[in-house]
Amino acid sequence: MNRVAALIPCLFFPVAAAALEIAMPQGSVLAEDEVKESGSYALPDGPFYDGTLSSRQLTGHVSRQAWHLQGEDLDTEQLIAPLRGQLEASGFAILLDCDASSCGGFDFRFATEVMPAPGMFVDLANYRFVSALKDTSKGTEAVSVLVSTSDVLGYTQLIAVLPGPEAGELPLDKPVVTAPVAPTVVDPTIPSDLIKALDLGGHVVLSDLKFETGSANLADGDFASLQAIAAYLIATPDARIALVGHTDNVGSLEGNVALSERRALAVKGRLVNDLGIPAARIDAQGVGYLAPIASNKTDSGRNANRRVEAVLLSQ
């Protein structure tokens, strides 16, 4: 047995289905658990290279889990070694086995699927990833393992894809009418470009945020910009940001300042309540129409001016 793997006692739990079991380190706590009987997953099979992450699109029974292990002296190899060993012992072929540097660092982190904070956290300079495949009589099984650490916790993300009972077929009790559903598309360049802009320029527009019409209520959904900001703040413990709301010039200055501040506060609330960022690390202010980035004479200009920006205060 790998010497590092032997350092951690393990406990068994099922991943995705009874056909696959992996032992987690003793003391591990399940933080997030999502199962889809019929789902899909893009399994990375190579590092991020030349602007692209190589992956295989898989469908079937998909399980996504995030685990926490308390400890101040954990390292990523210590976390991943026993899991890698179990996959190999179970007949899985390792496709990709890399650390932060060889995976592709920042770009790999934001090109591959990562469960949202606070369930999963990835230190951009300190993580490891393994993906593996196994052919069975029922089809292909796939597993990916992503691990990272903070000062006090080890984080492990497990994503498993197992063959469905009848791939591609749905048992029906009665005739149904189906309509095409437009897929939710997230621009994979948003998080990477956003954090780079924040680091280099000191501020960035959170351009994917959507508010209810005429309201300060932030629309439901997982916004890529907020996921990226949360990951950045978790990975950079000394960083603080200000969220600054902006409006077009329709209406009074007083009313627009109030609306823009409420929208900034709504974004702060999403980061604090849903993504686990301490409130003390985020300021929220509104400046109304005093800092336009486009002309308010056109619809497109007014749309651009209605925005929330993140401003880097300290790092």
TrEMBL record:
Gene Ontology CC entries for this record: cell outer membrane
Domain of life where this protein originates: Bacteria
UniProt keyword Protease present: no
CDD domains: OmpA_C-like (cd07185)
Key words, A-Z: Cell outer membrane, Membrane, Signal
OmpA-like domain segment(s): 198-315
Keyword Membrane: yes
Name of a matching Pfam family: OmpA
Gene3D superfamilies: OmpA-like domain
InterPro entries hit by this protein: Bact_OuterMem_StrucFunc, OMP_bac, OmpA-like, OmpA-like_sf
Subcellular location as annotated: Cell outer membrane
Signal peptide span: 1-18
Protein known as: Outer membrane protein OmpAb
Lineage of producing organism: Bacteria, Pseudomonadati, Pseudomonadota, Alphaproteobacteria, Rhodobacterales
